[in-house]
Each structure stands twice: as C-alpha cells, then as structure tokens.
Specification:
- The protein is mostly beta strands.
- The chain has one domain: N-terminal domain of TfIIb, CATH 2.20.25.
- A three-stranded antiparallel beta sheet has the order 3-4-5, with no helix packed on it.
- Strand 4 and strand 5 form a beta hairpin.
- The longest helix has 5 residues.
- The chain binds zinc ion (ZN).
- Zinc ion binds next to loops.
C-alpha cells in the first residue's frame, strides 16, 4: 500500500486537517460497493471515493466522485 504523504489541493485550496492542522495526507481509493455499503442500503454503490488520511492524527477526508 502506498502511504507516502503529500500535500493535497482541492478546488484550488490546500487541504488542512481540522483536528491537528497538519497539511500532508496519504491517499487511498475506496470502492463504495462493499458488502457493508450494500447491507446499509446505499444506492450509490459502485462509486469510487477518494480518501485523504492525515499523516499525523489519521483523520479521514472522503470525496465522492460525481459520475
Ligand atoms: Zn490530523
């Protein structure tokens, strides 16, 4: 797994962790069609979400791709 932390820019703004004010995150892609999501009845299954995880405290941002 790639856990190299990088600065992240969203719509032209630097992403800052709201918990610890750190500005480096590692990235992972998550498909929303997990058994857990299906179990909870989400009808937006099969969408990909991008997670940015704070490299210091582990706070997770979720961004759903509009498609
Ligand atoms: Zn943090």
């Amino acid at each position: 797994m790639n856990k190299k932390a990088n600065k992240v820019t969203i719509v032209g703004k630097d992403l800052i962790c709201p918990v610890c004010d750190h500005d480096e995150f590692w990235t992972r892609e998550t498909l929303m069609n997990t058994s857990g999501a299906t179990f909870l009845g989400f009808d937006w299954a099969n969408k990909a979400a991008t997670n940015y995880v704070c490299n210091v405290c582990g706070y997770v941002y979720w961004f759903l791709n509009k498609q």
